[in-house]
Amino acid sequence: MDVNSVLMDRAAPAAPCADRAPLPFDPLAPTIFHQPWWLATVTGGDYGEAHVSLGGRTVGRFPYVMARVLGGHAVCGMPVLTHFLGPAIDEGQGAACNRILRRAQITRDLLRQVPKSSGFWQKLHCGTPDTLAYQEQGYETSVQFTFEVAPAAATTLWQAMRDKTRNVIRRAEEQHMVQSLDDFDAFAALYIGNLARNRQRSYYGAKLIADICAAAKANGQGRVIGARTAGGQIAAAIFYIWDARSAYYLLSTRTREATNGAVSLLIWHAMQDIAARGLIFDFEGVSTSGSALFFTGFGGLVAPRYVVSRFSLGHRIAGRLANPLRKRNTETYI
Q: To pair with 147 at 20 to 30 A between CA atoms, which of 2, 35, 127, 314?
């Protein structure tokens, strides 16, 4: 299969989406990653969920997956392609002090329902204001960072970028046309094929990539766009998703011949689309100094994300035996 030709046959110019009706916010599904359709798609339905009710009304949800690791150990973690999760809590109305106490108690009640395991690792969504309820029960707290761009007019967003980033986008715009890509099998093949050509392996299978892209589009919460060269080749493509508050830069791919400019151009188009929806653009995840520098160029501000974890000594030893030269990977929690 010629992936580029398939993508080109089914691609249309990436005009701004007509449907930009705001999504309703639900404290029990505060992010796209908490929504049942997302969880069902990325896990094949194989996930657990703790619930807390008050007066017959659900006030807390905590979705999770249990993964088996070396030596019979298990970890309570997050599904693949899910950048953060943690408890979703409806703390209700009232004075701030009462809401804080109610949130903490609901968190404790949810954690008590989680199956016993030797490991626990969760990156909490931005609506989690603190980790006090975890710390009092012996969980460790750390922090990771992301870059966020608040919604604004396109001219304001453009002016907030670094000069170098703007110049890269200008050059890429002269060489590419940005288009919507709706053949998700072809996008998945392009993503995996580009990694293979660089002697890298995808963390995600082609079916999972195609399925989550299709589910996001069906629910009106995701889009794949690509940058086509004058010669008709797809130089780069990205998949971004959104919920009632934010959008997330989830997957990107580019050919070996393409430059970073093609991806930067696609991000710029996505930022404009998301700003028009009145949402924050979240780059979600700064893992290297290179990615930090790249994301800074788009004018984002640093925002923290709390991580809570707890591993038994046996779990830690098993992890080191399995991966003696590698630090714990947050995809495997070991």
A: 35
